[in-house]
Each structure stands twice: as structure tokens, then as C-alpha cells.
Amino acid sequence: MNIIGIDIGSLTTKAALINDGQYIDAILERSTYDFKKVGNSLFKKLLERNNLEKSDLDSIISTGYGRNSIPGLANDKVTEITAHAKGVQYFHPDVRSIIDIGGQDSKVIVISSRSGNVLDFQMNDKCAAGTGRFLEVMAEALEVDIDEFGPLALESKNPLTISSMCTVFAESEVISLFAQGKAKEDIAAGIHLAIAKRVAGMARRLSIGEPMFFCGGVAKNPAVKKCLEDVLEMDITVPELPQLTGAIGAALISYEKLQKNA
Question: What CATH code would you report for 1-83+244-262?
Fold first, then answer.
């Protein structure tokens, strides 16, 4: 049984193929203003790479920020909350809490130790604060490549305080600190710590517990992970393929649904 899950995020689109409940392959690209175009493009590339035709698929399911943008392609859709929960469980069945930080939103999810279902969640999707886009803007302000931003922050011995989490005001604050001659690594560390405090505030409103996992594109940033661990005072694990848990999870949800109806 072949199923493709397509996770259309605000910054990155991911497509994952599973066969009989097992992860096979995935592909991802930067999202554009045209979600429908990038979703269809990734779908075709994934089929070609695995020598498949659309007729070989049993289901195509969408999730993520732009999950409603490919109705002619996907035959089903699911929220990113349940998709990420299922995707992390595929790699780590014992997961109890998840932090997911994507391009335009951040989420904290609590999973039942008995049923494996989502018990509760908090989501910030009204503001760029505490998201991948926030990090990108701050990195640009400091003229640092986004892939080097986290490692730079880890070099700091004296993190500075960033008082504003509004992207516009925080950018001005960062530029001002840089103009004052403050070290880039100390400014970067302050930015990462501010994000961690923002997300930790969401987490504390829930009954989070270990094992805690961190997924989404921002999970690849080591400084965000360390700051979250320090603020929450708990160990956090980045699962294998952290950017793909939504796409994989969506495909698995569709697979389980088809099995039940078989």
C-alpha cells in the first residue's frame, strides 16, 4: 500500500512516501507563494524518484499551513497537530510531549501515554515571534547565514537580553545593539534565548513531560534546542528527520484509516 503525505508549510514543503506503514523516501523544497505549484511539483518528483505512477498510490493526504491548497491532488487532509504527533511516534513511540517550530508558527503538543492520542496543545500562529521566520529576519539583520546562526549563538559567554519579541521591533533592537559594538554571538544568543522563553511559556500552560521531542525546521538549530532545555529544565531529543514528521505522520494516518476500512 503506497501513500504520499504532503506537508505544505509556510517556508518549506515536504512530501513523504510510505509503503505498508514503513517510511520509504521524502523530498523537500522551499515553499513559494504558489503552494499548489510546489505541492504538485514535489509530488511528481517523488513519484519519478521511486519509479511510481499516480495510479500506484492508494492515497494522497495533505497537512500543514497550506493543506487546503491542493484539493485536486490530495484526496484527504489532516491537521498538522495530529500529523506531527503521529510522525514523531513513528520514530519514538514513547513520546509524551512535542515542540514543533516551523516557519510561521510554533506548537506544543501533549500525547497520552495510554492511547497515544493528542491530549492537548498550544499554538502560536498569529505572530512570527518564536518561529523560523523570526530567526531568518534576525540572522539577516546580523548578516549571518541562517545555517551558522545557531552555532554562532553557542559561542556566546554573555548572552544579551532582547526585550521585544515583535519581529519589527526586535530587528531594530538587534541592529541597534550591533551598532553599539556588541558581539554578534552575544546578540545571537539573546535572540535564541528569547525564542526559547516564548515557546517555554506556551509549554508551561500544558502538562508537558518527558520524553520531549523537538521537530520542525528550527529543530536543526542547536542553540534553540539548548536554550529550550535550559529554560524548561528537561532533556529534549530531536527525532530523525525532524522536518519530515508532518508529512510522514499524515501518510501514516491515511494508512491506518485505509486499514480500518479494508
Answer: 3.30.420.40
Residue that has been written with the C-alpha cell 504527533 in this structure: 85
Domain covering 93-238: architecture: 2-Layer Sandwich (3.30)
| d(C-alpha 256, C-alpha 262), whole Å | 10
The pLDDT tens digits of the residues spanning 182-203 come to 899 999 999 999 899 989 999 9
Element (H, E) at 44: helix 35-49
Is pTM, for the whole model, over 0.85? yes
| Rounded CA separation 201/206 (Å) | 9
SS (H, E, C) 126-159: CCCCCCHHHHHHHHHHCCCCHHHHHHHHHCCCCC
pLDDT digits (tens, 9 = 90+) for 209-254: 999 999 998 999 999 999 999 999 999 999 889 999 999 999 999 9
The three cell numbers locating residue 192: 535564541
Return the H-helix or E-strand segment holding 39: helix 35-49
**Ranges of each domain in the chain:** 1-83+244-262, 93-238
Encoded amino acid at 217, one letter: G
Decide: 146 and 216 in contact? Cβ < 8 Å: no
Fold match, 1-83+244-262 / 93-238: yes
Amino acid present at 121: F
Contacts for 230 with CB less than 8 Å, ≥ 6 apart: 196
Check if the beta carbon of residue 109 is closer than 8 Å to that of residue 81.
yes
